[in-house]
Structures are given as structure tokens and as C-alpha cells.
Design a protein that fits this description.
Two copies of one chain form a homodimer.
Chain A: E1 8-12, H1 17-28, E2 32-39, H2 46-57, E3 61-66, H3 100-115, E4 119-121, H4 137-150, H5 152-156, E5 162-164, H6 172-181, H7 206-218
Parallel strand pairs in A: 1-2, 1-4, 2-3, 4-5
Helix pairs in contact in A: 1-6, 6-7
Chain lengths: 231, 231
């Protein structure tokens, strides 16, 4: 067994509410964390600034990988269509970015092998989520199986990749309550898919709706700066 | 069933001998091909030029995605250490790029969903290969399983992703014989990991050794321009 001081993790940090909570959970669990963000041409670039700020204030190594997802197009999150603001629907929404979590986890896998890190934390959530297929437990499990066949370290048995998803069965309310208990300052996170130029959240997109409902359900004051009162 | 004219494929085209053969196989099989290359800061950038030339001459849509694999480091192929020239060894070599095929296939998966393409062709080879874990059938199978759980199209049942590996059980000799029978001009492909500034192959790296041995075994004249006679 490794010593406690050897516990290292890669944390995918988007700068949103969920990934900031995941980072707090990993740190509270004694992991030395290395944060990874992706600049994929997202509309909501305030997210990336939030990620950098969160990592810096936690004194954590942070790296941003630039990848061109706009090449494949097909999502409102990368500017091809309008972000919908009519509420969460049953079908998979247009804000879905094709294979996004697969691509993010694939890059994290390469990094984990170089840094000799077993644990990759990602803030996917299968409860209060937006209907993305790559947030489901069966996807995560299949990725983990693949990952351990993909790498030199996996084949040689020196690493055993685990995709850690502490939020996967939690409601947004529970996520926020957990984060607050660990001292997360949610005013520093960014969730909105379609923010104003000054960084204020639109208050109407799926991400804003989920976030607002989470704070309301948790009975915690929402520190988000919204464009206008949308309660 | 789809009509023959609906048969579309994404072909991962590195510009090397194997992927050029895969493209010829897919085209001969009646697929309308879309080629995808990756600029990952590789030393052997002549490969990318070869890929663009091969696609152009075949009149095929070709797209290059820039990704920063050097961020994670750890491979002689991205300039961290010397390319070895002492022959192929049993262990996984330093030219291994962490999670490379996982990352490439993940990006191809995103593209396949946008273009509504079931078939992704990749020129991995588990016989005369350099010992990369992500060239083995068990990796490919695990990736395919994961891919069909990762995407909106897979969940909705409109696409069934297949990772096609026509070379996986072929020797280099057989690959070359197949390519020649399909009219592949191997003088336009590039294999060397450490070429001279004028594009000539070093003749000593693993990739050059495998290529030369393949042509010798096939009894076919090797059209590669080597730096010097290394037979």
C-alpha cells in the first residue's frame, strides 16, 4: 500500500459548481490534486477563469489543455446554435457536446500515466443532470475498463486507473450541502452556459435553472450574480 | 439497411504506411471516407504533410485536429527523449505516447456523431507493431463498448459505432501486399519517427525497421528515401 502522502489525483475542473465540489471532496479525502481544464472554444469562458482562480486559491497545480471541439461542431455550447432557455426537457439537449467527457477523460488518462496517478475525479451527475449520456454510471464503468487496457502502466500493472465520480448519485441539493460543509465558496464558481459580457449568469439556461433550484432546495442563499431577478 | 451510397466512414490517417492502406481498404469496400489527422507536436511532421497529400490526391475530405499531447509529455515521439535506434525490443518502447489512440478515437467519436457515421477505421496492428497497448484487440473492443454508451446517437439507437481495424491481424508483409494490390503508392507515405530535415527516413528507428522488413518479406521494392543505405 502507498502512504497517505502518495495519494494523488487528477481532478477535471471546469470551474463550475460540481467540479469545485469534487475538488473539495478529493482534497478532504487526503489527495494531492492536479487539476485539468479544457479550453474547447466554449461560449462560457468565464468557467475557465473560475477554474484557474479556484485552483490558484487552493494552491494546486492546474493545467489547461486547448482542444478544438468546434471542428466537429454540433452543439449550442460551442456556438453553433442558440442556448435553449425554456426549461429542462426529457430529450438530450442541443447543449450536448459530442463525446465531450470521452475526450476529456482520454486526455486525463494520458496525464495520469505520465504523473503515475491512479485516480481521476470527474464531477458527472446522473440525477439532476441535463440528460447527457456520458454522465451515466454505465459510461463511466466502460471508460474505466477501456482505460486499464489502453495504457502501458495498466498493462504492466503499475497503475490501476479509477474514474472517481463522488457526485454521480447526488442531487444538486446534496452536492451544494456537501460543498458548503467542506467550505466551498460557490460565489467563485461559474455555471451559466450563456453569461453576459460582465460574467453575470443569464438565469434561464438549463445550467442556471439546475443551480438555482439546488440552492433553493438546500435552503442556502445562492451567491450567483444573475442578470436580473429570475426567481 | 442503408444504400451503398450511404456507406460512410471516418478514417484515421496519420500519413504512414498502415493508415494509407486502411484508407485504400475502406475505399475499395465502397465507403465514402472522411479522413482525420492529429497534429500533436510530433517530431515527424512529414507524416502530416503525407496525410494531407494522400487525402487530396484521393479527393477526400480531410481534417486535422490540433491537440497538445506535449502537455503530458512522456514520449520520445513528442521530443522529450531520444528516439531509440537499436532495434525492436520486448518491452513497451519510449516512443509510446500516453493514451494516444484513446485520445484519437475519442475525437473521431465526436466527429462520427456529428456526421452520423457508424464506422471508424484505424490502422492498428497487433502483430508487427511496436508493443503499444492501445493497438491490441482487447483495447479496441473495450473502446467500442464505451463509445456506444458515450454518445447521444448510441443511446438513441440511431448510430452503432464500430471501430474497424482491418490490419489488426496482418503482418507488415501482408499489409504491404494488400496495399499494392489496391494501388497504394507507398512512396507518398511517411513512417520514420526521426526523419532528416529534407524528409528522408533515418532507416534506424523502429518504424523504419518494421517498414523495411515488410518490403523485404513481401519481395517488393521499398520506395522509401532513406538517409543512407541501411539494408
Amino acid at each position: 500500500m502507498r502512504n497517505a502522502q502518495d495519494k494523488k489525483a487528477i481532478v477535471l475542473l471546469s470551474g463550475g459548481l460540481d467540479s469545485a465540489t469534487v475538488l473539495a471532496i478529493a482534497m478532504a479525502d487526503g489527495y494531492q490534486c492536479h487539476c485539468l481544464s479544457f479550453d474547447y472554444g466554449q461560449r462560457h469562458r468565464f468557467e475557465l477563469e473560475a477554474a484557474a482562480r479556484i485552483a490558484r486559491e487552493a494552491g494546486i497545480l492546474h493545467h489547461t489543455i486547448a482542444i478544438d471541439l468546434r471542428a466537429s461542431g454540433g452543439s449550442a455550447l460551442t456556438g453553433d446554435t442558440e442556448v435553449p432557455k425554456t426549461g429542462i426537457q426529457d430529450m438530450i439537449p442541443v447543449t450536448y457536446v459530442p463525446a465531450r467527457n470521452t475526450i476529456f477523460l482520454a486526455h486525463a488518462l494520458g496525464w495520469s500515466e505520465v504523473l503515475e496517478i491512479n485516480d481521476i475525479f470527474i464531477g458527472v451527475n446522473a440525477i439532476d443532470y441535463s440528460g447527457y449520456p456520458d454522465c451515466r454510471p454505465e459510461f463511466i464503468s466502460a471508460f474505466e475498463t477501456m482505460a486499464n487496457l489502453a495504457t502501458k502502466a495498466g498493462v504492466e500493472g503499475t497503475l490501476r486507473i479509477r474514474i472517481r465520480t463522488p457526485l454521480i448519485s447526488m442531487s444538486k441539493k446534496e452536492i451544494i450541502q456537501k460543498g458548503i460543509s467542506l467550505g466551498v465558496d460557490y460565489s467563485k464558481t461559474h455555471s451559466c452556459y450563456d453569461p453576459l459580457p460582465d460574467g453575470r449568469a443569464c438565469g434561464h439556461c438549463d445550467s442556471c435553472r439546475l443551480r438555482k433550484k439546488g440552492f433553493t432546495d438546500a435552503g442556502i442563499n445562492d451567491p450567483t450574480r444573475y442578470a436580473h431577478n429570475t426567481q
